[in-house]
Amino acid sequence: MINNPALDVAIGLAFIYAIYSLIATVSTEIFSTFLKLRGKNLKIAILRMLDNNSFPENPKDNPLKTPENKLENDLSEKFLNQPEIRFLGRITRNGKERCPSYIKPTTFARALLNTLDYTWSENTNLSSLKEKLNPENPTHKLIINMLDEANEDIEKFKELSAQWFNDTMDRASGWYKRKTQLITLIAAILIVFPLNLNTIEISRKLGSDKKARVEMVEAAGNYIQSYSLVNHTNQNNLAKLDSLNTQMQILLSEAGETGSILEIGLNLKSPSDWFIYIFGCLLTVIALSLGAPFWFDLLNRFVKLRNTGPQEKTEVKDTRQIRKVSVQL
User: Fold this and answer.
1) What is the pLDDT of residue 10?
2) How far apart are the C-alpha atoms of 217 and 311, rounded to whole Å?
């Protein structure tokens, strides 16, 4: 076991970051659900795929949908009205239908064929679908190319469509992450500054107070064991938000006693005090914006590193002394 004060301070900081970054992550999930960001993001991605690379959230606002080219750019509207897509969403209290938050690639491929009015029959030719498409339209041209590459093989066309959807979703996940990162950053600011989570002062406290440092390390070790057990037994049957709440409850319970030890007063009398407060809190905000998974992984690595190394030899010396005493007696 490695007994290094610097490593213990790093474990304490990582544990604190894990606690509050998880709170920020839960807050982000709640706001994302409230704002329906996933459904909106998926809808924008589908509009980009099927409506000639346009970005509007509302199909009615699509500038490409002029009377003369409406038939060429209404694939997304027809696609979203397919039963296998519509029924994945939910109906709000005011009767409006929400776009689903997630679509499987195989579902997308089947819905695309239905959007193209494909007749599910052994005698149906894929080449007949090209008559309904305009080669001058970039989206239609892409679909025509997939039809040619499939060479009348329906399974091949499904595979190509699913790959197209996966490639677009990889980009769409980047769009979604940028939106949620902004929400997480705002949540971190609202958490850090009122609670005075000053990285500089916390580091000083852990470095000078051995009792606080030891208890933080013990709490972090207990959490790693509890989290591993919960994650192993429930990873297949817990929803994402429920899993986050479970992790947060474990973290807060482990940090219950150590939180009172790390109480840091806010005493801002000089410009230097203000600088340390603002700069230290900004460091914490940046740390929390990295996300809970990052700090969970790093905390786990720190705890494992501390538990490695040679064991202390004090117990061996004590047993030898006991044996000598027993022989003399």
Assistant:
1) 92
2) 17
